[in-house]
Every structure is written in structure tokens, then in C-alpha cells.
């Protein structure tokens, strides 16, 4: 189950988080500006998370295997059709909507299944599964740069399309419904979403998402602006991915000793510190250090958010709850990258996205500090669900 979820995360975020590497060649080919091009990333990520409550509920009802299989078909079709698209409108349909829908059918259904399969070592199992995000970014970012230099962005999407489909079909074959799936108590998660703990968790994730997505979209362009090559700039995205694996597994391993929520809050401190480094980065070594530090913080947040939700609210209806929670990331990507793109188009200075990301990371930290360390009691869940 962990391997299947890991593969799903590798593909989904290997494809979407390397969009910054494709931004400039696609913009030049399609004759559009940074602000418009960045809406593609926003569309993919928004659909990934806004559709997650729907796909998470489908996985709770039918099991994760058919949902992941559907996502595999959508991912391959979306990338192959994007390679043939000749206008921005067509790319928005095939890449933005196609890949976004595919991602929604893969990530949350797979991750929530892992959360339901494990009682002991759930935090570590989720951390390993979610580390696929970092591994996918680590491999796909420099690979994208090499493929674009050799074959162009269109043929690169063809290669990604077939490879993604194959890996996702393997993941779907490995997936299965959790053993207690047939006996699970059907409850409403709405009462959980109305708690103050959920509110702090949701809004802090949203602002951290703004900071993270700005980095993924604009790091390659920022690096090019200070004279760094495309492959070297893409490597910074790879550093973020590699360090995020350390954050996911390392910080997760520290959680039993220092407390899950406390360690989760420390991840936000690390994320904020990384953007202070980016503000000072005028050379490749310092930019690489930023990528490493940011990856640790971002990885810790991504790995522990599902575990924090499970600890605070229990595992009943976890797929639907995580789907609702991650719509915060969808809201973040609708606001962050396009706003940063407008700033760049208006000022022609890549420093403004850095200021915006720093401010978002600061707000995220402020909002996660008062997060309450409490969990709903099973009896309270059933009573509230019945009400």
C-alpha cells in the first residue's frame, strides 16, 4: 500500500511541480506572458485539491484501485494531448484540466488508503508514502530540463505521458481497499470542519501553499535571471525534492519524541527561514542552500499534515476530510503564482515573488502556532455525525 501511494505521489508531483522548467519554452511557443502561463500550474493544482473531496469520497465508497486506474488513463491522455496542442486555450484544457483531474484521482485516494491501513506506525507509513512527492520532483525536474534541451517541450510531454501511465497502472494494481472498509461507520465530517483546530490547520496550509507554489513556478526563471543555466536552475527544484524526503522522513521520525503537532509547527519555522535565504540569494550556491532548507520544511509540512489530521479528528471518513483540508492548497495556487506572475510582468523583477512568498510563510507560521492538540472522541464523532 505504501509503495502504491509512493508511486502515485512520484508521478503526480513529478509532473506538476516541474512546471516551472517548462514555463519559459511553453510561454515562448504559445506567445503568452508569465501571469497567463502560471495559471496553468494553478489550474492543475487547484483541480488536484478541489476535486479531492469528491475523489476521496469515491475511494471511501468503491476502494482506491479503480480510482487510481481512472487517474492513470486521464494522466496519459492529458500529457499526450498537450504535446499536440497549438494554442493556450487547448493547453489549458488538456494540461490544466486533464492533468489536474488525473492528479485528483490519484493523490488523496492513495494517501488516505495508507492512513486507513495502518494503526501502528501510521505517521511513518504516511511519511514514506508522501516522500514520493520529493522523489518525483528530484528526478523529474533535471530530467525535464535535459529532455527539453534535447527534444523540446512537446516531445518531453509525450515521454512523460507514457511513463506516467505505466507507473500509475502499477500503483493501481498494488492498491486495495483497507481491511475494515466494509465495516466502517459512515459518519459526517462536516462537524469536524467547523472546529477551530480545523480552521487553523486549513488556513495555515493555504498560506504555506502560496509560499511553496511560488517557489516551484518561479525558481527556474529567477535562476535564469541571475545567469544560471536551465539545467542548473532545474537542479534547484531537484534539491527541494531531495531535501523534502529528508524532511518527510526525518521530521516524522522525530515526531514521537517531541510530539507530532510540535514537530509539525517546527516545519513552518524551517520553511520561513528558507525564504529569508532566498531574499539574499544572488549566487547559485546560496540559491541551492535555499532549496535544501525549503525542502526540509515543506517536506515536513506535507508529510505530517495527514497524520496531524488523523490525530486530531480520527480516521473515520479520512479520505473525505483530507480532501476538504487540501482544498486549501487549491486556493493557494489560484492566488500565489498568478499574483507573482502579475508582479513580474509589471515590474520585470523576479524579486517580488520572493517577498510575496516570505510574507505568506510568515502568516502560515503565525496561524499554526495556536493549533490545538486534541482529538475528537469516537463517541463524540458518532453523536455529532448523527446530529
For the record, what is the CATH homologous superfamily label? MFS general substrate transporter like domains
- Biggest sheet features: none
- Helical stretch tally: 19
Work out the radius of gyration: 20 Å
CATH topology: Growth Hormone, Chain: A
Strand content: under 5%
- C-alpha termini separation: 34 Å
Count of all domains: 1
Task: Write down the secondary-structure element order.
Answer: HHHHHHHHHHHHHHHHHHH
Which secondary-structure class do the elements indicate? mainly alpha
Mean pLDDT, rounded to whole units? 84
Question: What is the total tally of β strands?
Answer: 0
Low-confidence stretches: 373-387
Q: Could you estimate the helical fraction of the residues in percent?
A: over 70%
Second CATH tier, the architecture: Up-down Bundle
Q: Which word captures the global form?
A: globular
What does this structure look like?
The chain has a single domain (2-178, 187-386), classed as Up-down Bundle (Growth Hormone, Chain: A), CATH 1.20.1250. Helices cover 84% and strands 0% of the residues. It has 19 helices and no strands. The radius of gyration is 20 Å and the shape is globular. The two termini are 34 Å apart. Residues 373-387 have low confidence and may be disordered.
Amino acid at each position: 500500500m505504501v509503495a502504491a501511494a509512493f508511486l502515485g505521489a512520484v508521478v503526480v508531483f513529478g509532473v506538476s511541480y516541474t512546471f516551472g522548467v517548462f514555463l519559459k519554452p511553453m510561454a515562448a511557443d504559445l506567445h503568452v506572458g508569465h501571469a497567463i502561463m502560471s495559471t496553468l500550474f494553478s489550474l492543475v493544482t487547484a483541480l488536484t485539491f478541489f476535486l479531492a473531496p469528491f475523489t476521496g469520497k469515491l475511494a471511501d465508497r468503491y476502494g482506491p484501485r479503480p480510482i487510481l486506474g481512472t487517474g492513470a488513463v486521464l494522466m496519459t491522455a492529458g500529457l499526450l494531448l498537450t504535446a499536440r496542442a497549438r494554442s493556450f486555450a487547448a493547453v489549458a484544457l488538456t494540461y490544466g484540466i486533464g492533468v489536474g483531474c488525473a492528479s485528483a484521482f490519484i493523490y488523496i485516494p492513495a494517501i488516505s488508503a495508507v492512513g486507513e491501513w495502518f494503526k501502528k506506525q501510521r505517521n511513518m507509513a504516511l511519511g514514506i508514502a508522501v516522500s514520493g512527492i520529493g522523489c518525483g520532483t528530484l528526478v523529474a525536474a533535471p530530467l525535464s530540463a535535459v529532455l527539453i534541451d534535447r527534444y523540446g517541450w512537446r516531445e518531453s510531454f509525450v515521454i512523460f505521458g507514457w511513463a506516467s501511465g505505466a507507473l500509475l497502472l502499477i500503483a493501481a494494481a498494488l492498491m486495495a481497499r483497507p481491511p475494515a472498509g466494509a465495516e466502517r461507520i459512515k459518519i459526517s465530517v462536516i462537524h469536524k470542519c467547523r472546529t477551530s483546530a480545523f480552521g487553523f490547520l486549513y488556513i495555515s496550509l493555504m498560506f504555506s501553499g502560496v509560499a511553496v507554489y511560488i517557489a516551484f513556478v518561479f525558481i527556474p526563471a529567477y535562476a535564469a535571471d541571475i545567469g544560471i543555466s536551465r539545467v542548473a536552475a532545474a537542479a534547484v527544484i531537484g534539491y527541494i525534492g531531495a531535501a523534502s524526503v529528508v524532511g518527510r522522513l526525518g521530521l516524522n521520525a522525530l515526531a514521537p519524541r517531541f510530539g507530532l503537532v510540535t514537530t509539525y509547527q517546527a516545519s513552518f519555522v524551517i520553511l520561513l527561514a528558507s525564504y529569508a535565504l532566498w531574499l539574499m540569494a544572488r549566487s547559485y550556491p546560496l540559491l541551492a542552500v535555499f532549496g535544501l532548507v525549503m525542502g526540509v520544511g515543506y517536506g515536513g509540512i506535507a508529510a505530517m499534515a495527514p497524520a496531524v489530521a488523523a490525530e486530531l479528528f480520527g480516521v473515520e471518513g479520512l479520505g473525505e476530510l483530507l480532501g476538504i483540508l487540501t482544498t486549501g492548497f487549491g486556493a493557494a495556487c489560484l492566488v500565489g503564482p498568478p499574483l507573482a506572475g502579475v508582479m513580474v510582468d509589471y515590474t520585470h523583477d523576479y524579486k517580488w515573488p520572493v517577498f510575496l512568498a516570505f510574507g505568506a510563510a510568515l502568516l502560515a507560521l503565525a496561524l499554526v502556532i495556536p493549533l490545538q492538540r486534541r482529538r475528537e472522541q469516537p463517541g463524540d464523532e458518532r453523536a455529532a455525525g448523527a446530529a
